[in-house]
Design brief:
The chain is an alpha+beta fold and 147 residues long. It is 23% helix and 27% strand.
Length: 147
């Protein structure tokens, strides 16, 4: 078993790695759209500006989707795999009605070149640990050449 962490993605908000390799499987922890290298005390989220009371001044969900995809991509790459190796994706949204269509459209763009595409489950949650609207976790199969 091997734990994997990288500065190419936001720091986890708890005591856990970005990913864990077990045999030929790679399990990614939930990853949000905070900028790479930041942690919960520096919550820079692309497309999100909050006032001093935590109220939204700017909210761009599409920017969050692109950033979370970049963050997951970074963890996959540092682990030696890519989206083509992902077999299962779980997506957490804080507002399904508002954000699902946008997420689905952008996700489809990233997945377009892949066949077969990974399985996916999308669920709505009441909150995520920081002021974000999306989080993704996934499972990948590590190619035999890398085992």
């Amino acid at each position: 078993m091997e734990s994997i962490s990288t500065q190419q993605a936001p720091n986890p908000v708890g005591s856990y790695p970005h990913a864990r390799r077990v045999g030929n499987l790679l399990f990614l922890s939930g990853i949000g759209p905070r900028a790479a290298g930041t942690d919960a005390s520096d919550p820079h989220v692309p497309g999100l500006t909050l006032d001093k009371n935590g109220n939204f001044l700017e909210f761009d969900f599409a920017a969050q989707v692109h950033q979370v995809m970049a963050n997951v991509t970074a963890v996959l790459q540092v682990s030696g795999v890519g989206w083509q190796d992902v077999v299962d994706v779980t997506v957490f949204l804080t507002h399904m009605r508002r954000d699902f269509h946008t997420f689905n459209r952008i996700y489809a763009e990233y997945m377009a070149p892949l066949e077969p595409k990974p399985c996916r489950t999308t669920v709505e949650v009441t909150a995520l640990p920081t002021a974000i609207a999306i989080e993704i976790k996934c499972i990948a199969v590590i190619p035999e050449r890398m085992i």
